[in-house]
Amino acid sequence: MTSRANKSWSAFLIATGLMFSASCSVKDAKTIDCGDPGRNPEHRLKIKVKPNGSPKDVVQDVLFGGTAKELHVCRGDTVIWKHKKKKAFIIGFEKDSDNSGKVDEEDSSFDWTEQNSSSKFEIIGTVRNDAVVGVKYDYSLTIPNTPEPKLDPIIIVDR
Q1: Disulfide: which of 54, 77, 82, 113 matches 148 by Cβ 3.0-4.6 Å?
Q2: Would you kindly state where each structural domain of the chain is located, as residue ranges?
Q3: How many CB atoms lie within 10 A of CB 122?
Q4: Per the confidence metrics, is the pTM higher than 0.90?
Q5: What is the CATH topology of the domain spanning 3-158?
Q6: What is the mean pLDDT of each run of 10 residues along the chain (159 residues)?
């Protein structure tokens, strides 16, 4: 290779490495700065499935699809879950944080505690403006009628 070709190849590898490391920040589940004016308030998530149809993972819809098992969001952000294979699924917040015997609004980062995707194959939620910062909102993603129907990811509200 010529010196010029080596430099071009090196620049390509550096750029690819920077893109990959930027996309991996989702995997690291780092806190986000909600005051950043350049921040995207929309989080598109795709549901990956195992060969038997059971949910395998929830991934961020970005380059290289980083995992979203622990998703950091801000108040007012929109989260969109979509099933890649066009199957119905359910998102439910099940943790009874105040031991009241029922799952209520404060147990969810959204204004609902359960949503069914029905025939749209997607669920859209907007993070409540009064969602508690720093709380890990545990939710379940269920694909009915599959051998292992459930995943248990987390949503964390940042400042």
Answers
A1: 54
A2: 3-158
A3: 17
A4: no
A5: Immunoglobulin-like (2.60.40)
A6: 52 42 39 91 92 90 71 95 88 77 79 86 94 89 91 90
